[in-house]
Amino acid sequence: xxxxNVRETIFSLKSYLSAIxxxxxxxxxxxxxxxxxxxxxxxxxxxxxxxxxxxxxxRLVGTFIGSAATVYMVPRLSNSPVIMTGxxxxxxxxxxxxxxxxxxxxxxxxxxxxxxxxMIGFPSVTDPSLVFDTALARVEEISLGIVCATxxxxxVLPRGLAPALTLQxxxxxxxxxxxxxxxxxxxxxxxxxxxxxxxxxxxxxxxxLSTHVPFDTSNLRWTAGAVRAMQDQISALTPAVSxxxxxxxxxxxxxxxxxxxxxxxxxxxxxWINAGAxxxxxxxxxxxxxxxxxxxxxxxxxxxxxxxxxSLMTRLxxxxxxxxxxxxxRRDIRAGLQGAPLRAPVRASRSARDPNSALHRDHGMALxxxxxxxxxxxxxxxxxxxxxxxxxxxAALMAAIFSCFFASQDNPVPGIMQFLTYTVYSIPLSALYLxxxxxxxxxxxxxxxxxxxTAFVLGIFIARPAxxxxxxxxxxxxxxxxxxxxxxxxxxxxxxxxxxAQCMGVATAAIIAAIFRTVSADWSARRxxxxxxxxxxxxxxxxxxxxRHTYTxxxxxRIGLLQPRLALAKRPDDLxxxxxxxxxxxxxxxxxxxxxxRHLPMADPTIQPVLDSLAQFFRIRSSERAHDKPPEFLxxxxxxxxxxxxxxxxPTARDRAVVALVGIRRAFFPDxxxxxxxxxxxxxxxx
Length: 687
Prior knowledge:
Layout: H1 6-29, H2 34-44, H3 49-77, H4 81-101, H5 107-124, H6 131-155, H7 162-184, H8 189-209, H9 224-251, H10 260-274, H11 281-294, H12 304-337, H13 350-353, H14 363-387, H15 392-405, H16 413-437, H17 444-462, H18 468-482, H19 492-517, H20 521-541, H21 548-568, H22 576-597, H23 604-622, H24 633-645, H25 652-668, H26 683-686
Helix pairs in contact: 1-2, 1-6, 1-17, 2-6, 2-18, 3-4, 3-5, 3-6, 4-5, 4-14, 5-15, 7-8, 7-9, 7-10, 7-12, 8-9, 8-21, 9-12, 9-21, 9-22, 10-11, 11-12, 12-25, 14-15, 14-19, 15-19, 16-18, 16-19, 17-18, 20-21, 20-22, 20-23, 21-22, 22-25, 23-24, 24-25
């Protein structure tokens, strides 16, 4: 076994200190179940202080809501066990549904509201007149654990999020830089695909990690706006780089070479990008000027190659602007960590103001999770009612808790079974303490010292990601059994009965999840892809232009979700990832076309059919019906391109529309004959 390092030792000692403090206060106040407070302190413990603080607030609110719901339901329904079970199932299911949809720390509010009601409600059924006292005691015990853990992890050697977050920020920028360099230098497609997958995962991890920034204990919390703005900028790099890659491929098709000035510009941009943090803003200004000089003017006589070159230059300008802003924001964050005032970042998008709005939500999977939890609780309650089992409430509440804990996973069964296995492994340890050590203890000091070795060792393993789940299962089983000491039923019969109830509840959650909730990685990947198509159909048919940053961030989140699932899919040659990247570019082109058309009233009659065809195509595709492109789609795109190109010079909306139409044509008809202008140049002019 690897010896613990300093970080793991400090985390374990802080977790034990907060837990034993909660236990002492619970005993001092005279709460009926002090070990609930100790268990809660361990459940709340996280390596980073900001993560503890962010979840603590939501856990407290969720506990209050769940307790209030129980106090309302139990006295009214305790005489009707079936109706009582139905009401509890609906409550837990509704809360779990909201929790699975919300992938931010706020999800803990809904999860706690759900299974807190089960924890309080089921044991109170036998004596509903005491439900208020029981609910109040549980709230006090759980709140004690949350507050003690938050205080200790925030005050005693707090571990700030800044090192981990800045490391993730730098990794995302570095991976973006690698992808841009490989694209501009013409590296092989396999390497570029690997770069893109790594960046998509970086962005998702960064977005989830940064949700804790406002709660951090260091100066990092004052940089939250800059961190979120930087996330948006890194996200915006992905469609820009992908579009540059596509336009370069189109311009070099058939063995043709890029114009020498363009090739030289690409080398200059690549060199600037490779400079990393040393890349200067002055160089970015110079490169933007060079891009502007090389951008051809588009009119009714412009060729397809001119349009491709204009599109390439536009995307290069966006790439330069976005990367330059990323570097500026990174410098701001570095300065902010040292206490310097921050400059005003670029205007925050909706995804920056509410990061959770940019994350993928799967209502179907959330509903399936709620259904599985409801069935598991119902099975346990039916057995409890049918047999009049004195410990049936424990089985029902364990089914509720573990149905909630692993609900966000495609296949929750392995996680639940691992928890069940290590809960069984904890039985000898629990028996040793409960039946052997505890009867000989007559002071709190002796209790604290006797629990220190076990708690310290388990805390070390909780601090290690590879063993955290197993160690938490051992600790949960151990402390859950120790709670028998609270009820003065620490005898062999009660011990065995409680262990059977715990294992039955967890096993029921696993069995029901295997029947109703488990889905394959391939099915899940296809479902995420279908969500992309539905959103693209909505974008194309929307009467208003949507937020580009929000859509881009959500699509990148889906790409990040796709990667681990595709690695487990049955078809290793699946093209879902490539399709998702193309959808990302198309979505950006649709949003630009939607914004531009409002300023191009003369061209709008030809743009609208393109958007209608896009909406129809993605609507049909998302329903898994045949999804051939409409036969007139290419003609509609070319007609719109000619109409936009013929618009008088001046408005930037015209240029944006041309670039968007070029992108849509390349996405759907990459091998089609070149677009022919409505008024081709005369031969003499062409020469």
